[in-house]
């Protein structure tokens, strides 16, 4: 009897007091082992907004480990957006990375010395190869013309706007990462995208969450329909494509030439360390391959999603489309629009900002932070009528663009830098 009472007391203490015991912000009471996973549904923003109303702007959820959710515009802007790299330190998914890369490699998940050095190196490389250069802008412009030509030739038939966006964005990311120029209708980008869409549901599913907690479950994969085996096969297929691209880059690589891509710069750094007799450190093959895979994730799906949303809102709001066209006609005329023209196009900037939008807590170092930008964008206290598309709200009485510093739509830190390039260049080209 005493044991039963003790167990009940321990369960109640865990259920109602675990966050306070661990010094975490308040949040929905977690269940043992599974945390708050049963409370999540497809309308995630709705659930998070309900918890925000109940527990405050910063609260804790267990999935199944404790993660601190930030759902406040001011806090996100002052901390996560301005200093996103300080929020990448999180519990590393060791089992997933072991299946994928054979270890904790790449550009994400934890702020260790390898990740920090590679991120810094990547940003430096992008600056040196002309991340926002006229050369890259020319490539994007040519792809944009190709997309427009195909849409015009559709002769009013129904078309999938995502298909051409995916080809263009995939080719741009491939060019920046490997220095390889692909034909617009190449088979490689759709193939790679298909593979990633096959493993994402398994990778983000509940099984992998439990595998991270109980690695022994990998030995009983057959009980779960061999999901882990399939995940490893998909990971291997994606790695093979990236490895082949690296081999192609290596064939034409000359360490004496200025690098034109991330992989070329990485290879030159590896060669430099080898010639100097230095330890390889962060610059080895597995880290290079994993970083290339991460660059795809940072630049592809996020940008395609934004462009798809931009088109959707133009279709649903023809008045916005007419205003945009008039501004372009009056300001740009028949000449080619350039990146620097954004200063002359306040309504275009307001439109893009609108499309991207549609506290004091002490949190221990190493705690996983979940900055919920989409939740903030759907909160009526943060943005008036969040379900109403209105670029005009970002234009003042004198017709000037009013830049609102909202959290970026997808992430912060390094991912934000890669994503921002595509979002700033592509829609205006």
From TrEMBL:
One of its GO terms (molecular function) is oxidoreductase activity, acting on paired donors, with incorporation or reduction of molecular oxygen, reduced flavin or flavoprotein as one donor, and incorporation of one atom of oxygen. It comes from the Eukaryota. The keyword Oxidoreductase applies. SUPFAM superfamilies: Cytochrome P450. InterPro entries: Cyt_P450 (IPR001128), Cyt_P450_E_grp-I (IPR002401), Cyt_P450_sf (IPR036396), Cytochrome_P450_fam2 (IPR050182). The keyword Membrane does not apply. One of its GO terms (biological process) is xenobiotic metabolic process. Transmembrane segments: none annotated. This is Cytochrome P450. GO terms for cellular component: cytoplasm. Belongs to the cytochrome P450 family. It comes from Pristionchus pacificus. The lineage of its organism: Eukaryota, Metazoa, Ecdysozoa, Nematoda, Chromadorea. Keywords: Iron, Metal-binding, Monooxygenase, Oxidoreductase. The gene is WBGene00115359.
């Amino acid at each position: 009897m005493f044991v039963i009472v003790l167990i009940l007391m321990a369960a109640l203490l865990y259920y109602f007091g675990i966050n306070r015991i661990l010094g975490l912000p308040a949040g929905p009471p977690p269940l043992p082992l599974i945390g708050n996973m049963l409370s999540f549904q497809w309308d995630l923003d709705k659930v998070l907004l309900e918890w925000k109303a109940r527990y405050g702007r910063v609260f804790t959820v267990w999935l199944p480990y404790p993660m601190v959710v930030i759902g406040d515009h001011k806090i996100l802007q002052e901390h996560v957006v301005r200093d996103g790299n300080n929020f990448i330190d999180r519990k590393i998914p060791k089992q997933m990375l072991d299946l994928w890369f054979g270890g904790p490699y790449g550009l994400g998940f934890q702020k260790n010395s390898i990740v920090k050095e590679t991120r810094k190196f990547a940003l430096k490389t992008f600056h040196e190869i002309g991340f926002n250069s006229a050369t890259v802008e020319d490539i994007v412009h040519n792809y944009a013309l190709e997309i427009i030509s195909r849409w015009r030739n559709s002769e009013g038939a129904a078309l999938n706007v995502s298909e051409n966006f995916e080809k263009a964005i995939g080719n741009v990311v491939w060019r920046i990462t490997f220095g390889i120029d692909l034909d617009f209708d190449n088979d490689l980008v759709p193939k790679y995208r298909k593979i990633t869409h096959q493993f994402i549901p398994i990778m983000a599913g509940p099984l992998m969450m439990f595998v991270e907690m109980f690695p022994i479950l990998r030995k009983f994969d057959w009980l779960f329909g061999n999901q882990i085996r399939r995940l490893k096969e998909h990971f291997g297929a994606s790695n093979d494509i990236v490895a082949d691209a690296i081999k192609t880059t290596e064939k034409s690589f000359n360490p004496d030439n200025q690098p034109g891509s991330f992989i070329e710069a990485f290879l030159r750094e590896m060669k430099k360390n080898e010639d100097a007799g230095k330890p390889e450190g962060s610059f080895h093959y597995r880290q290079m391959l994993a970083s290339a895979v991460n660059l795809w994730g940072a630049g592809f799906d996020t940008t395609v999603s934004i462009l798809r949303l931009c088109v959707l809102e133009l279709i649903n709001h023809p008045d916005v489309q007419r205003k945009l066209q008039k501004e372009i006609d009056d300001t740009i005329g028949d000449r080619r629009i350039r990146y620097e023209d954004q200063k002359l196009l306040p309504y275009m900037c307001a439109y893009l900002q609108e499309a991207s939008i549609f506290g004091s807590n002490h949190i221990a170092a190493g705690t996983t932070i979940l900055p919920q930008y989409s939740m903030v964008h759907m909160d009526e206290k943060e943005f008036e009528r969040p379900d109403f598309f209105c670029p005009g709200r970002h234009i003042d009485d004198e017709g000037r663009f009013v830049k609102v510093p909202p959290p970026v739509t997808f992430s912060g830190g390094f991912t934000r830098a890669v994503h921002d390039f595509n979002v700033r260049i592509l829609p205006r080209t």
